[in-house]
Amino acid sequence: MTDQLASVRYVVDDVQAAVDFYTGHFGFVVRTNVAPAFADVVRGPLRLLLSGPASSGAKATPADAAAAGRNRIHLIVDDLDAEIDRLRAAGLGFRSDLVSGPGGRQILLADPAGNLVELFQPAGS
């Protein structure tokens, strides 16, 4: 099954907070959780590797690249307005305004470590 998944590694300050964020708000399922060092969660074909400060993944990260970056995971949703309402009701804030373009609409929020998550609703859906 692992060879059928696309994996992304996020370096996080608090592995359990990241697990709670992704499983509690976005439907990810825990595969491995050895917090505080590491966990991986899955949603469809996406495997998100959550590496805490004690993990080998975090230790291999150069100091000048240690902060959360401009890269982000891209999650497609059926009803962006409903997702925004649901997440606001859960106390989450957004890092961008709602943006519309020819391909669809999107909004950004950040996980507890500052890594970006893009919620995207394709045009016509």
UniProtKB/TrEMBL annotation:
<dbReference type="GO" id="GO:0046872">
    <property type="term" value="F:metal ion binding"/>
</dbReference>
<dbReference type="GO" id="GO:0004493">
    <property type="term" value="F:methylmalonyl-CoA epimerase activity"/>
</dbReference>
<dbReference type="InterPro" id="IPR004360">
    <property type="entry name" value="Glyas_Fos-R_dOase_dom"/>
</dbReference>
<feature type="domain" description="VOC">
    <location>
        <begin position="4"/>
        <end position="122"/>
    </location>
</feature>
<dbReference type="GO" id="GO:0046491">
    <property type="term" value="P:L-methylmalonyl-CoA metabolic process"/>
</dbReference>
<dbReference type="GO" id="GO:0016829">
    <property type="term" value="F:lyase activity"/>
</dbReference>
<dbReference type="InterPro" id="IPR051785">
    <property type="entry name" value="MMCE/EMCE_epimerase"/>
</dbReference>
<dbReference type="Pfam" id="PF00903">
    <property type="entry name" value="Glyoxalase"/>
</dbReference>
<dbReference type="InterPro" id="IPR029068">
    <property type="entry name" value="Glyas_Bleomycin-R_OHBP_Dase"/>
</dbReference>
<keyword id="KW-0479">Metal-binding</keyword>
<keyword id="KW-0456">Lyase</keyword>
<dbReference type="InterPro" id="IPR037523">
    <property type="entry name" value="VOC_core"/>
</dbReference>
<protein>
    <submittedName>
        <fullName>Putative enzyme related to lactoylglutathione lyase</fullName>
    </submittedName>
</protein>
